[in-house]
Write a structure and sequence with these properties.
Layout lengths: L2 H15 L11 E4 L5 E6 L4 E5 L6 H10 L11
Helix pairs in contact: 1-2
Length: 79
């Protein structure tokens, strides 16, 4: 699968399982953490819940894994 298609499907599924309250202002993202590992940053409007994960070859499974992965911050951080 082409990387652009993979990312499009990944973010579509991530938005479905972890909707962003104000999409115009904040969005989910993929980045590289200070430790060099992949970080999936799940937007919660004014903060990010960072799920440390690896990306599955299937973008739908990867998005679901990110949504349910252990995070750097507790889930109750959103106000």
């Amino acid at each position: 699968m082409h990387i652009a298609s993979y990312l499009e499907r990944f973010f579509e599924e991530l938005d479905r399982v972890c909707p962003v309250k104000s999409y115009a202002t904040y969005d989910h993202s993929i980045g590289r953490g200070q430790d060099g590992r992949i970080e999936i940053r799940l937007s919660a409007v004014d903060w990010y819940k960072i799920a440390l994960t690896t990306l599955d070859a299937d973008p739908i499974k990867a998005a679901r894994d990110a949504a349910s992965a252990p995070t750097k911050w507790p889930d109750d951080r959103a106000g």
